[in-house]
Amino acid sequence: MWVKACLTVFGSFHLLSVGNAVHIKRHHAQLEGEDWIQSIPGILAADPSALPEHWFDQQVDHFSKNTTVFQQRYFLNTTYFKPGGPVFLYSPGEGAARPVGGGQLRNLAEATNGMIVGLEHRYYGKSLPTPQSTPEDLRFLTVDQGLADFANFIRKFTHEGVSPKTKWALVGGSYAGAQASWGRQKYPELIHAALASSGPVQAKADFYEYDLALTEALPCAKHLHEVTKHIDGILDERDEEQIANLKTTFGLQNITDNADFAFAYTDILSGLVQYYRPAKVDPIDTFCQPFDTAKTVQDKLNIWAQYIKDQIEGPDSLHFYDYEGMNKNLSHDDTKSWYWQTCIELGYFQTAPREPLPRIRSKYCDLRQQVNACEKIFGKKMTPEITKFNRQHHGWHVRTPKIFYTDGQIDPWRKLSVNSPNAPKRHDKPSSPLVVITKGSHCTDLGTNATTDTQSLKDARQREVEAFKKWML
Ligand SMILES: *[C@@H]1O[C@H](CO)[C@@H](O)[C@H](O)[C@H]1NC(C)=O
Ligand SMILES: *[C@@H]1O[C@H](CO)[C@@H](O)[C@H](O)[C@H]1NC(C)=O
Ligand SMILES: *[C@@H]1O[C@H](CO)[C@@H](O)[C@H](O)[C@H]1NC(C)=O
Ligand SMILES: *[C@@H]1O[C@H](CO)[C@@H](O)[C@H](O)[C@H]1NC(C)=O
Ligand SMILES: *[C@@H]1O[C@H](CO)[C@@H](O)[C@H](O)[C@H]1NC(C)=O
């Protein structure tokens, strides 16, 4: 989950990850399924159970003559809608849809008399084009099929007060933020504007910059570098008993493969940065402070290990790293769907930077570890077609106007966004706003107003509302 998307559902209040409030704790930094919507406080509707599910007959394959359809789920919120108003089409991306209507979506809808539609992504939640999760079943799970779902939905959606003249905006966070940008670019005649929150629009296989972002965000990074080198040494020695003890210290004894273990112990930590939210008791400081008084590398390792153990809760906690288990179980599984997307098209593989760059991840976290994971899950060798994908979708070279790009300053995913320091230089313009929220992280802007909001976050939300008022009215 560590790479979750940013959901917004109607309703209840969920704090972010990092070991609190949510019944699921987050353990990894993949943009990935499950209830990741819950990482956006306040995005859910007040009473999710009161909102009916709706179903749309969606084309299984948009790129053939075969007209077979599946049932695609969506939710509606018409609280602020007035006939003639715009529609905000919210994608929950790589996780189940929930009734939406809270957080920034609410602010956007309120300001424009807009309707909110939350359309579940194919192969997540209950929107299943095929019954199982074999590679054969998953062949219709591509970014382009998902974007064509938006287009087909917009063309066919009927509701009182919605006409062919209605303006539609795509809204999403994380992978869905990238989708919003790719979708507006591909279907500008149907999608009038887009809000791309924390969208990694540039696909990349060897995504070591994620790890550099952790180093930038964590004041105790140098201690973590030291611990990781120590762990590399233990793994190099191949003493089975010592390695077993090491894994047990982190609560990760169930992960048999050493490289997979190496991935997990940093991936679980990364939620601390990815889902950072300013709070009275700052979670990053809370994690980092004890390192200052730790004397030995073993003491430092123990602090890190204890944090990981605290994140692991219940037998499903490590599902994300159970590649063989996913291979054996052919039922639909959101996590597996997300792996499919990364394994065939998007990459986003969080690897260790190569020396002399600083690294929090073990050197065993290389591309091979990630590509092997794909093979373990799907039973065949796979390489994401990154070059082709970026050529088709233009990565961070996108130039379509009326796409609002918002990122969090410390969010590791910013490294693949239009707001990345590595992206081609461009200027913030009214037709193409670029906003980076100071001390913000993943999809912070999509959440609900809170007393802990920084001025920078308030300004970002305000600018979004102003831009969409201009574009959608
Ligand atoms: C159309 O696609 C469905 C689902 O994949 C399949 O069951 C069916 O056989 C296909 N029909 C044709 C005519 O290819
Ligand atoms: C729609 O969203 C509004 C604003 O968040 C919320 O108060 C309302 O309960 C939602 N409507 C439904 C039917 O859930
Ligand atoms: C580890 O494996 C044991 C035995 O299969 C199982 O009971 C336990 O729930 C697993 N723990 C985690 C955190 O997955
Ligand atoms: C298979 O996966 C489904 C969906 O994730 C889950 O509900 C079920 O418990 C799994 N079965 C086994 C045997 O792990
Ligand atoms: C959130 O704050 C903005 C201004 O900062 C305000 O316009 C908006 O109405 C607030 N939303 C809610 C739900 O209170």
From TrEMBL:
Annotated Pfam families: Peptidase_S28
Entry-linked InterPro entries: AB_hydrolase_fold, Peptidase_S28, Ser_carbopepase_S28_SKS
Keywords for this protein: Glycoprotein, Hydrolase, Protease, Signal
Signal sequence range: 1-21
Annotated GO biological process: proteolysis
Example of a GO MF term: dipeptidyl-peptidase activity
Family: Belongs to the peptidase S28 family.
Protein name: Peptidase S28
Species the sequence originates in: Basidiobolus meristosporus CBS 931.73
Lineage start: Eukaryota, Fungi, Fungi incertae sedis, Zoopagomycota, Entomophthoromycotina
